[in-house]
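dumping this here so i dont lose it
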């Protein structure tokens, strides 16, 4: 499909032998990389800086940018070929389990071990740890978290966490403070419609399926819950799970009209942008649209705060990462692009174009915070980013869909939360049993 220059084994040997040469990109000059990116504001920002990469390295980049679901379908096809068309892909976090389990992503260790490729100033310790754990690492605890035998198959790029956006002008008008706890949050969610008739308290995802599940999980972790315990027993239906379901129902009941249909997240974000709600708690990715006067009627009147405290602080981790497909044709040059985009310099360049940083130092950058004042709050929130707020396992897709469909019944049909979650737990156990998660326990 694409004409590509392929590095020979002899050229690799020359590259390694010449690691100390002045230009580490020289062996790859003339390569054309084909990358697959999602249609997403972060990747729009990344595309804006690719000319800088080509100017510095001599490596050309062709971008195939697709809407997320089409991107996932295309990757499913491409990654199964003997020789794929993509040299570098962006993948959403919950695809990590599928791709790693199917041996479709390169283990990045050998690239970071190669002195001709690895930039000694890359500074891995500066990458936000929760993002690395959530998006990049597999093979450790539970199979998808870090551990002594874990390894990196991707690097976070376009990562997200959850924060609370609120109408600063409305809060000041009524002498309100940004909620610090879940008790405060739920009280305000239902108080605001009384203070401002016609305005919902908080806009939230809630549509049946993935959106309702995401919204529920957003509250489950800070309220002390998990979907499974460490032995893979479903505990989603315990006291914390019921509290999370009730919290979501309160938020939707006191939210803007039509809230049970909000999804994808842009629908809820749009309600906040158009002044239909006083609060919105979700990904940092939406902040730029809130501040854009061409899209938002509330631009200049939005404050930002950390995800409120429940039993613990636990904001979501999600978004995208970069990985090299196992069947890529230009793996070494692809690594150089991955490394450049996620370096300190690359991360800052993308962030200045409106992207989401993946490094602590970027969030601390004075120039970035002057341009996007909300970045400072986001940097503080990342201290509590929870890499295990949802399980990243191959069977998660079906369980996630069941959670969302069932929670929608809680929101729209007044299904009892305990009864709803008991059903989810029972069906999840059956799924896990069939997938072999209790094999070793049953053998004891």
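and the seq i came up w/
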């Amino acid at each position: 499909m694409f004409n590509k220059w392929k590095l020979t084994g002899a050229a690799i040997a020359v590259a390694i032998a010449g690691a100390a040469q002045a230009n580490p990109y020289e062996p790859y000059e003339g390569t054309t990389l084909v990358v697959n990116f999602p249609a997403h504001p972060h990747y729009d920002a990344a595309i804006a800086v690719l000319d800088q990469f080509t100017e510095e390295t001599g490596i050309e980049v062709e971008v195939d940018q697709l809407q997320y679901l089409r991107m996932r379908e295309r990757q499913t096809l491409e990654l199964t070929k003997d020789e794929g068309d993509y040299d570098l892909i962006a993948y959403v976090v919950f695809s990590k389990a599928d791709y790693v389990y199917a041996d479709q992503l390169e283990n990045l260790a050998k690239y970071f071990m190669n002195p001709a490729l690895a930039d000694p100033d890359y500074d891995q310790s500066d990458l936000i740890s929760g993002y690395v754990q959530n998006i990049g690492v597999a093979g450790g605890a539970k199979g998808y978290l870090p551990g002594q035998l874990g390894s990196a198959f991707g690097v976070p790029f376009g990562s997200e966490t959850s924060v609370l956006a609120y109408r600063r002008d409305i809060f000041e008008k009524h002498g309100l403070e940004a909620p610090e706890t879940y008790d405060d949050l739920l009280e305000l969610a239902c108080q605001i419609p009384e203070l401002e008739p016609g305005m919902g308290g908080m806009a939230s995802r809630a549509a049946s399926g993935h959106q309702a599940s995401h919204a529920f999980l957003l509250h489950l972790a800070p309220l002390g819950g998990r979907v499974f315990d460490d032995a893979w027993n479903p505990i989603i239906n315990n006291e914390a799970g019921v509290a999370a379901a009730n919290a979501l129902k309160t938020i939707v009941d006191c939210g803007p009209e039509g809230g049970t249909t909000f999804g994808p997240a842009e629908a809820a974000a749009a309600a906040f942008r158009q002044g239909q709600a006083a609060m919105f708690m979700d990904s940092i990715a939406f902040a730029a649209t809130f501040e854009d006067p061409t899209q938002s009627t509330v631009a200049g009147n939005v404050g930002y705060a950390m995800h409120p405290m429940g039993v613990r602080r636990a904001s979501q981790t999600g978004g995208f990462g970069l990985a090299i497909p196992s069947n890529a044709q230009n793996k070494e040059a692809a690594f150089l692009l991955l490394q450049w985009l996620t370096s300190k310099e690359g991360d800052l360049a993308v962030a200045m174009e409106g992207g989401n940083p993946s490094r602590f130092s970027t969030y601390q950058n004075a120039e970035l915070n002057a341009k996007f004042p909300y970045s400072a709050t986001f940097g503080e929130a990342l201290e509590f980013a929870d890499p295990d707020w949802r399980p990243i396992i191959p069977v998660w897709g079906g369980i996630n869909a069941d959670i969302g469909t069932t929670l929608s019944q809680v929101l729209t049909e007044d299904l009892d939360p305990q009864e709803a979650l008991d059903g989810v737990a029972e069906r999840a156990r059956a799924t896990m049993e069939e997938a072999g998660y209790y094999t070793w326990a049953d053998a004891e």
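Strands lie at 32-38, 60-66, 88-92, 137-138, 151-152, 155-167, 200-203, 277-283, 302-306, 317-323.
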